[in-house]
Protein 1
Amino acid sequence: MPAGDKPTRWAALQAAVQGDAVCAANVRPGKKIVLGVGSLDATIMFVGEAPGAEEEIQGEPFVGPAGQLLTRMIQAMGLKREEVYIGNIMNWRPQMPTAEGREQVGNRPPNQEEMQYCLPYLRAQIEVVQPQVLVALGTTAAQGLLGFGTFKMLGEIRGQWREFSGRPLMVTYHPSYILRNQSNRSKRMIWEDLLKVMERVGLPISEKQRKFFLG
Ligand code: URA
C-alpha cells in the first residue's frame, strides 16, 4: 500500500485489484472485478459476501435486489448510502458451470480458498477507511471475517459484538434473508442489530426508529 491520503491509497488499491491476474482469471469475459464503494471517511463499513449478477455487470457491490434493500436499511438508520462504506469478502462472482454461451443463473458461496485470496483486499480497504465499526452481513461474511468453525449457525452469534482487524464487528443476517423472509420478526432482528451499531457510533435514534418493525 503506497503512502498518501485516503483517495490516493484507495486508488492504488483499486488499480491493484483491477490488475490482479487471479481476479481477472475468475471473472467471465465482459464482467467486472468489484471493489468496495462509499465514503472513505465512513464510520460504518458493511461487509457482504460476493458480487452477484448485477454487481459484476456494474462493478459495484450491492446494486441488485439485496443491495437495494441494504440501501433502504442504511436510510432507515438516518444515513445515505454514500455516507457508509460497502465492501465484500470477494472481489469476483464465484463461478458456476453454465452451458456454452449461457449466463450464470444463481450464485454459490465462495469457498475457503477463494475467500483467503480476496481477504487481503478487504483488510486493505479497512486500513484505508479506518471505520469505527464493521458489520458482517450473513454467514459467509461472518465466516470470512471470524474464521470457519467459529460458529455452526449464524443465529448463535448474530447481534453480538466480535472483533476483526482490531475493530468492533457486529454480525447480522444478510439482506437477502429478508428478501426470502418478509416477516416483521425477521426485519426486527436485523434492525435490533443495526440499532446496536447506531448506538456504538453515536448516531441519534428517535423513538420512532426504536420501534421499527415491532408488532
Ligand atoms: N450480495 C452480497 O453479499 N454482495 C453484493 O455485492 C451483492 C449481493
Note: Strands lie at 37-38, 44-48, 85-88, 133-137, 161-164, 167-172.
Protein 2
Amino acid sequence: MKKAAPVSRSGRFAAGPSADVARFTESISFDWRLWRFDILGSLVHATMLRKIGIITTAEHRSIVKELEAIGREIHDGKFTWKPELEDVHMNIEAELTRRAPAGAKLHTGRSRNDQVALDMRMWLRCEVLDLASAVRDLQASLVGLGGRYADVILPGYTHMQRAQPVYFAHHLLAYVEMFDRDYQRLLDCYQRVNVCPLGCGAIAGSTLPLDREMTARLLGFVDAKNRPLLCQNSMDAVSDRDFAVEFCAHAALLAVHLSRLAEDLVLWSTSEFNFVRISDAYTTGSSLMPQKKNPDVAELARGKSGRVIGNLMALLTLLKGLPMTYNRDLQEDKERLFDTADHVRATVNIMAAMLQQTTVNAEVCQAAAADPLLLATDLADYLVCKGVPFRQAHHAVGTLVGVAEKLGKPLNLLSLAEFQAVDARFGKDVLGMFELQSAMHRKQLPGSPGSKEVRKQLARWRKELC
Ligand code: ARG
C-alpha cells in the first residue's frame, strides 16, 4: 500500500523520511488527543478565511462538513491515524484535503507552530477547569469527613512527637486551606493559558489580512468584558510554553499536598496509630501475608508526586537552552503535560472518594489526646496569667514534667504540693487545667483549634463548597 506523503515535505524533498526517522519524529501516538481542539481551531480559521475572502462560501461549507465528519469518526474510534503523517494536525488536514479539495487552502496564513500552541492552550483550558472542580470536590470530602467526626480530638505533632491537642477536623481543614490555594493558583494560571496565538504563523505572522480578533473571539479567548485576548508577540506565541510550565508547577504543588495528606492517612491507618480505618475498597492484600491490608491507594497518591515533580523539571529543562523560536524539541512538552494532568486529576478524584469512605477510630484518638503532656503549654500559659515571665513558666513546667517522669506519675496526677514545690504561684485551680474539653474551649484565637473556632471554620467551608 502506498504511504501518504508527509505534507510538510512536499516540494522541497525528493524522498520521504526513512522509517526510523518517521518513528523517531512522530507525535501522533500521543498528540492525537488534541483532535477536538485541532478541529475546532480549523473550523474557526476557515470561517475567518471566508470572511477575508481567501475561500468561498462553498469551499467553507465543504471544509466544515468534512471536518465535522472527521470529528465524528475520531470520536467513534473509526478514524485511522497515520504515523507517517507525523502529528494530529497533518493527519486531520491530509484527510480533509483528500475529501474536500478546498482543504488545501486551510493552512493559509497558519503554521503548525501557532496551531500546536493554540491546540495545547485550548486543551489545557479544559483541563485546568476540570482539575479545579475536582479540587473543590476533594475539599468537600475533607470537610464532610471532618464534620462527621467534629468532636474527635487527637494529638497534633511536631517533629513527629506529640505536641498539642487539636480537633481531627482542624487537621483536615489544614489541607482544605492548602487545596484552596491550589485551586486559586489554577484559576489564576487560566488567565495566562487563555490567550490566543492563532495568526502568529510560523514565527512572523502573515502578510494576509487575517482577522486575529475574530478567531480569538470565536474560540473563547476573551476577557470578562468579551474583549479578545491575543498573544502580542508572534515569536513569543510560538516559542514559549510558560503556560504549560505554570500549570505543571501548580499541579506539582497540588501533588505535594496530596502526598502529605496520603502520608497522614498511611500513618494514621497503621496498627501503631490506628486513628483511622481506610475502607477495604481502597486497600489491597499481600500475596504472601494473609493478614495484610495495605493502603496502596494512599501510597500511590504519595508516589505519583514524584513523576509530577519530574514532569515539571523536564519541561523547565526542555525550555532552558532553546534558541528562539520554535524548535522541534518543543514536541516533547506534550507527554509531560498530559501525564501531569492525567495523574494529578486521577489522584485528586480517588483521594476524594477514599476520604468519603474513611472512618475514624474515635476512642483511639480520644485516648491519645488524653495524654496530659499535650497540655504542658497550657500550663505555662496558666503561670503567665499569674504574672510569670514566659521563659520562667516554660522552665517551671519543664521541671514539673521531669518530676512527674521521675515519680512515674502522669503530669495531671501530681499533687498541689508537688506543683507548688516547683512554683508557689500554682493555685488549686491548676488541676482543672487538664480537662481536655475546657482546654479546647480556651483556644479562641482565629485560626486556632478551639471548639468554637473549628465549628466556625467547618461552617464557613461548608457554605463555600456546598
Ligand atoms: N508535532 C509538532 C509539535 O508538537 C507540531 C509542530 C511542528 N512544527 C514544525 N515546524 N515541525 O511541536
Note: The pocket of arginine is lined by residues 27, 31, 87, 112-113, 116, 326, 328, 330-331 (CB under 6 Å).
